[in-house]
Structure formats: C-alpha cells, structure tokens
C-alpha cells in the first residue's frame, strides 16, 4: 500500500528519511567503518581476524581486504568499500588512510552544515583545500626519486609491503620491486620521467613450490617434483576415502573437483556436487543439521571426519 500522505508521491511503504537525519546516518556509517580499520593503520598496526559464515578465517591489516570481508549494507558504507578497492587498484597502498581521512572530512563537514553553512560552500572549500594541498606537496614535500638513493626506495617499498601477504619476506621482494621499476624507467617526448607499472610482468618459474604455511621447497630434480605431486594426489584421495568410510553419500563443495577424484566418488556410489554457492551450502546445512567445515584437521592436527559433516574446501 502507498503511504497515506499524498505528498509522498509513489513512495511504497517504509520510512522516508531526509535532511539532517540522513546526513547524520551517513556520517555515523562512515565513522563506524573508519573505526574498524583505524587500529590497523601504519607499520605497527594490529591485524584483524575475520571469520566468514562458513568458518574460513582471514587475518590481515590491509584496509581493502578487511572492508571487502565486511557485509556492508548501508549505501554510504558501500561507497567507502568501493573507495578502498579503487585506491588499492590504482595505487596499491593507502587503503586504510583514505578511509580514515574521508570519514573525518565527512564528520567535519556535518558540523559545518549544522552551523548553517550551505553544503555547496563546504564542497567548494574542500576543493580549494585539495588544490592547495596538492600544490604544497609538489613544491615542499616531494623529492626526486633519483636523489633518494637505493636504500630509501627499498624502505619505502617495505612500508608499502608491510600490510601485504608477502610482508614477512620483504627483504627478498622489496629489492626485486625497486630494481624492476628502475628497469622500466622511460622518458616521454616532454622530458617527463615515467615508471609504467603495466610494463612489468610476472612469470611463474616451475620447480619452486611454496606451501600455505610459508614453507618453501626448492626442487632441483624433476623426479622429485613428480613425487611431490604424486604424494599430493594421494593425500587428497586419503581424505576422500575418510569421508566415504563414514557412509556419507552426498558431498558438496564450493570449489572444483578433479576428474580423478570424481571417479572415486562414482565408484563408491556417492554424489559429489562442485562449485556450490556458500549461501546455498549454509541453507542446506541449516535444513539438514549438517556442519560446514573448511578442513578435516582438528586442534591436534589429526584429520578426522564425521558423517554429520558436509565437506567444504
């Protein structure tokens, strides 16, 4: 039914909020998101542990990663998530800083609006301040890259990598990144020096494996690599057989299933469904009383499986 007030036009149910009330709600949403990532700012920032609805754990202090894991429904909050993702895509760093700065600007702007200053005037002032800030940084704070030296560039790269997954190996990756960018250095027709990031490509070298727990395996003999892959396949088959041994006849997973392992399920008379959505698995688990798991290992490191579980990798 339409709202009883004829001035509401085509408004269909719900509550209509406008003016200062909606501004306060937007500022509150922005401040809440900024407070979530504020403690992870800087090289000494704290890590956040995020657990999704199926029990998968993500530990990070990267602002874009943290915000992408949050279920944000408020329109203003979604803008902040998009802002952090674009900052990460364009620059690769400063995702937490940009969220905190924008939230503070919104908070201060809301105070100015309450002081009867028109929003257009506030926006004009912010744009003027932005131009002056950029001008000041270019004239007073910026330094030519050539004058910094190799050590300063490496320290800058280490600061940027500190919140990334490769932060623990920054002594190895930072000189590589600095040398790579210096190798693609070019000068355009106007005499400006450019460092095109798109000119850098990453190739995977076969024969080197890195496990999920940070263990690095250097393989020199191709036969050793063959044995490692063979053992990996055997481990997966052992896990499948543990599941089937309990009498489970329906296995659902969000990822793909190799044909080799599908054959194992078919021979046991079990149905294996791959590439299921997490939301669907949550509904099925709730309806059947099953439990979604991300690993067969318990706290002691032993791999076990019960028939009441639903296998999720």
TrEMBL record:
- Per the record, what is one GO cellular component? chaperonin-containing T-complex
Q: Which InterPro entries match?
A: Chaperone_TCP-1, Chaperonin_TCP-1_CS, Cpn60/GroEL/TCP-1, GroEL-like_apical_dom_sf, GROEL-like_equatorial_sf, TCP-1-like_intermed_sf
Q: Which residues form a coiled coil?
A: none
Tell me the keywords, alphabetical order: ATP-binding, Chaperone, Cytoplasm, Nucleotide-binding
GO MF annotations for this entry? ATP binding; ATP hydrolysis activity; ATP-dependent protein folding chaperone; unfolded protein binding
Q: Where in the cell is it found?
A: Cytoplasm
Which SUPFAM superfamilies would you find in this protein's record? Answer: GroEL apical domain-like, GroEL equatorial domain-like, GroEL-intermediate domain like
Q: Please name one Pfam family that this protein belongs to.
A: Cpn60_TCP1
Write out the similarity annotation.
Belongs to the TCP-1 chaperonin family.
* Protein name as catalogued: T-complex protein 1 subunit alpha
The organism named in the record is: Hypholoma sublateritium (strain FD-334 SS-4)
């Amino acid at each position: 039914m339409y709202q009883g007030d004829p001035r509401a036009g085509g408004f269909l149910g719900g509550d209509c909020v406008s003016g200062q009330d909606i501004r306060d709600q937007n500022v509150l949403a922005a401040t809440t998101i900024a407070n979530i990532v504020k403690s992870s700012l800087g090289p000494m920032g704290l890590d956040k542990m995020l657990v999704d609805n199926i029990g998968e754990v993500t530990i990070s202090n990267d602002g874009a990663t943290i915000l992408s894991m949050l279920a944000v429904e408020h329109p203003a909050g979604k803008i902040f998530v998009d802002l952090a993702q674009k900052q990460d895509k364009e620059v690769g760093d400063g995702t937490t800083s940009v969220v905190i700065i924008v939230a503070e600007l919104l908070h201060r702007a809301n105070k100015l609006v309450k002081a009867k200053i028109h929003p257009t005037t506030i926006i004009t002032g912010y744009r003027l301040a932005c131009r002056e800030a950029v001008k000041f940084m270019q004239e007073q704070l910026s330094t030519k890259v050539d004058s910094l030296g190799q050590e300063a560039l490496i320290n800058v790269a280490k600061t940027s990598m500190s919140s990334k997954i490769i932060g623990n190996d920054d002594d190895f990756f930072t000189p590589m990144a600095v040398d790579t960018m210096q190798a693609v250095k070019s000068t355009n027709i106007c005499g400006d020096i450019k460092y095109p990031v798109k000119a850098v490509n990453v190739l995977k070298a076969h024969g080197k494996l890195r496990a999920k727990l940070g263990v690095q395996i250097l393989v020199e003999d191709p036969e050793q690599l063959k044995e490692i892959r063979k053992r990996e396949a055997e481990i997966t088959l052992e896990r499948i057989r543990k599941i089937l041994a309990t009498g489970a006849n329906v296995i659902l997973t969000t990822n793909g299933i190799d044909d080799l392992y599908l054959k194992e399920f078919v021979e046991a008379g079990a149905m294996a469904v791959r590439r299921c959505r997490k939301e669907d698995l949550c509904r099925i688990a709730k309806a059947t009383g099953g439990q979604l798991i991300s690993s067969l290992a318990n706290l002691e490191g032993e791999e076990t499986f019960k028939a009441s579980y639903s296998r999720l990798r």
